[in-house]
Amino acid sequence: MTSHIVMSSLEQVACEDLKAFERRLTEIILSSQPTALRWRLVLVVVSVCVAVGAVYWLGDPATAQVSFLTSLWLHPWFSLSSLAMVGLFLAGVHRRVVQTSIIVNRTREVLFDFSMDCDDSGKLILKPRPATA
Fold first, then answer.
1. Strands (E), the chain
2. Contacts of 126 (CB under 8 A, 6+ apart)
3. 8-43: per-residue pLDDT in tens?
4. Are 36 and 28 in contact (CB under 8 A)?
């Protein structure tokens, strides 16, 4: 009888640990989403600036007649937005944009060893344990 109570107590503790882990994982994912969204917006705005600047830069007939650096000097919108884009990528914005999916994928890799998975919001999915031979 006492071994049944001890086992039930251990299962209860394990269940509480899983719930706490799930709450923390969900909290981490939810807190990373606004940051990722902000960086996505920054990246979209800079990308649009580069595209608009490129259209004007390439559409200018003087572009073919002057040197490359002079052409860039004559089109500061394109030059500055291109530099901003390069700076953003060097700063790692491309990783910050997909930060939430990186967290979820790495968590899934770890949870696989424990016969578990999680959805994109961080909710745990318990899988049946594989049969041992």
1. 116-118, 124-126
2. 115, 116
3. 788 888 889 999 999 999 999 999 888 889 999 999
4. no
